[in-house]
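[Protein data]
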Amino acid sequence: MYSSLVCRLKSHPGAGCCLHVIRLCHQPVSTADSSSRPYPELDPYVSKKIQDGKRIGNGRIPCIQPPEDITQSLAKCISNGSMDNVLNNIDKYIGTGQKMERYLGSRKLPLDTRNLAVYKTKFFQQAQRKYKNELSQLDEDDIDSVHEMEENLSKEVALKLATAKGNWKPIHFDYTSTWAYILGGLTAYDYASSVYTLRKVFEYDKRFQPSTHLDFGSGVGSFTWALRKFLKSNNKLKEEFFVESSADMNDASRLLRYDGKDSTPNEIISSKGVFYRLHFPANENLKYDLVTCGSSLSELESSQLRLNIADSLWRRVEDGGYLVIYERGTNSGFQVISEIRDYLIQLQEFVEEDPQIRGELIAPCTHSMGCPRYLHDKIPCNYDVKYKNFQLSMFPSEYREIVYRNRLCYLIFRKNMHLELSDKKWHRIVKEKKRTKNTYICELCTNKGKLEEIFVHRRDKTLYNYTKQVEVGDLYRANLNSLLNKEI
């Protein structure tokens, strides 16, 4: 009888259809192989720069603040008399924004049809183990006892499913929630995350200067604020295309962009190459040098919808352009990023049939194999950002001085271009360095798709100084020689 229940669960239309391993929980456990640590041999070019006294990095995470001109526009918006409700209740907006931050940080993804069967099977097996003794003593001829046990198992599975489903609901941004999002620190996080990911693009490709930009789930425009930091003074974007389903978000974006003025209240805005849309245009023939998407795919209710959007975004990237996606550095955010990473890598198997999908993964991975954090580890692959909120005079002084530290998961793909061999040689620091009296301990995701732990001793002065300067999330430009297991 109980085996028949399991069969019914396995026959669910979503069972066995998952593209990815379902990550049911994360615990702070590392799977880096420390039994045979490789010894790093620094790249000669980097070694010479260190010996010449040149710095590779600053060894710490920079604190990012929203742009000064946007802060001034925000101050004008709030104090120009048309937003007295916000000005008079600014503490409430800040508090609401902070509650929203906590909600987004703890929110689980909704269980879609494909994942539901996997969870049901797992929870049913757990329930069987819980009632193992009762099941072993159960008389199958005793119909009442069998029925009671079935009810107990069903209740146990239903309770665990309710917990696993979490409290996911899409957020519909109206006027109040939009300004709570801006004032409560979430926009500052978006800006810091946008700066972090775009810096990776421009560090990798120093000649990249986009002339067109598509931003899906653009919010109030934090990606385009960040992009201005990296554009040369003589390079102006010819076209910016914002897709945001919230009309109130679009209104706020225009206010901040045009110095607190909004002379174009229509649903569809077109001004000097700047376009706002509530929905994705169906035509995929228009291509963009840079396509971005920040903290938006997790607002979709199923993995199928997320992959459909990711596919459409990828097809809109111009030859030689970049697709940049980030999500919050939570388990849910990591699952979204991992789904898209695997999907875009799998697409490369069909480039002969459809050349426009050809491209390569740039960051954070230096390989295209299975993600070791996703497949074998129990913590997400995420990276730290530090930031402050808008420095507004109407904010309490202690609130302006708070330095926030949050995390993000991200992906950067380049369209139709092969990586140079030099960038495929290196590794990514994926965990905060540990320091003892004379040693740095680093965990790397290597170009072989493995997590490796390395020791760097002070006696190797050049390598030690280099390791001191790089930070989690940076490339580690050294060859790992597994044959040189030096004793520290």
In short: The radius of gyration is 25 Å. The chain is about 40% helix and 20% strand. The chain has a mean pLDDT of 80.
